[in-house]
Write a structure and sequence with these properties.
With about 270 residues, the protein is of the alpha+beta class. About 30% of the residues lie in helices and about 20% in strands. The protein has 7 helices and 8 strands. The strands form 2 sheets. The chain has a 4-stranded antiparallel β-sheet with strand order 1-2-6-5. Strand 7 and strand 8 form a beta hairpin. Helix 3 runs parallel beside helix 5. The radius of gyration is 63 Å and the shape is rod-shaped.
């Protein structure tokens, strides 16, 4: 009985020592929304024991939904001297919950576990899409212009001669005489251009002088001067008779006019 207890205690002590030698460190990586899980965890195995023999497993819970172990893989990464050992935990399940819980188990005889909680981040494409985007301006295509019609040789020569006549006529009148022979053979080719140039060269008739607007005959005098001048009519108690006495004929005419003025309609 004592032998059995001692053997059992030895087995438990060895397993506890092996389990105590394992240590789980921090995590590396991030969990993105709409993506699969790809994380790394630090593991310190027993001295001289390879990481592949540590019997490491992982349990994933997305939100409140456990991820099947068949969709979870744990791979030891190559060891680098001077750096802690790492195991890579991957899952083919797409994250659609805001929280992911990872429980890492290590040890073949005695298990050492540690739980990690990750907040799911939006993917980089969503973060970039939330920023304001500068919309480029839409440039309207240029409408091709119609090509100019080819010039007729006769019209080109006629226009040149017409412009020469215009410039010579503006400089001096005698200079227009020697141009007549050179332009003579071109009259039949371009009479319209020569006539237009002649019209341009013709001097403009002088403008008729503008009529002067008649001045007003009304004269405004200040009111002060009008008050100072004596009135032409004044009240008087004396009858002023004309200097020349009236003739009997003038008296009869005056009486007739007076009667006509005082005549009633009934009369």
């Amino acid at each position: 009985m004592n032998f059995r207890n001692a053997l059992f205690a030895l087995i438990l002590g060895s397993s506890a020592g092996a389990a105590a030698a394992l240590a789980l460190g921090s995590s590396r990586g991030a969990v993105l929304l709409g993506r699969t899980v790809d994380l790394a965890f630090e593991v310190r195995p027993d001295p001289g024991q390879p990481l592949a023999d540590a019997c490491i497993t992982a349990d994933l819970v997305s939100g409140a939904n456990p991820v099947p172990r068949s969709r979870v893989s744990v791979t030891p990464l190559p060891e680098i001297p001077g750096r802690p050992s790492l195991v890579r935990v991957q899952s083919s399940a797409i994250m659609d919950e805001p929280v992911l819980t990872v429980t890492l188990l290590a040890g073949c005889n005695g298990k050492t576990s540690r739980t990690y909680t990750f907040l799911v981040d939006p993917p980089a494409s969503m973060a970039i899409g939330s920023r304001p985007v500068a919309i480029p301006r839409v440039e309207m295509p240029e409408v091709p212009r119609a090509a100019p019609a080819p010039a007729v040789p006769g019209e080109a020569v006629g226009s040149r001669s017409g412009s020469a006549m215009t410039s010579n006529a503006g400089v001096a009148a005698p200079a227009s005489a020697p141009l007549a022979p050179s332009s003579a053979p071109l009259k039949g080719a371009a009479p319209s251009s020569a006539s237009r140039s002649a019209r341009k060269a013709a001097p403009k008739a002088p403008k008729a002088p503008e009529k002067e607007t008649p001045r007003s005959r009304l004269v405004m005098e200040p009111l002060e001067n009008w008050l100072e001048t004596p009135a032409p009519l004044q009240l008087t108690t004396q009858l002023q008779l004309p200097e020349v006495p009236a003739t009997p004929l003038q008296r009869e005419q005056a009486q007739a006019q007076w009667k006509a003025l005082n005549m009633q309609p009934e009369d």
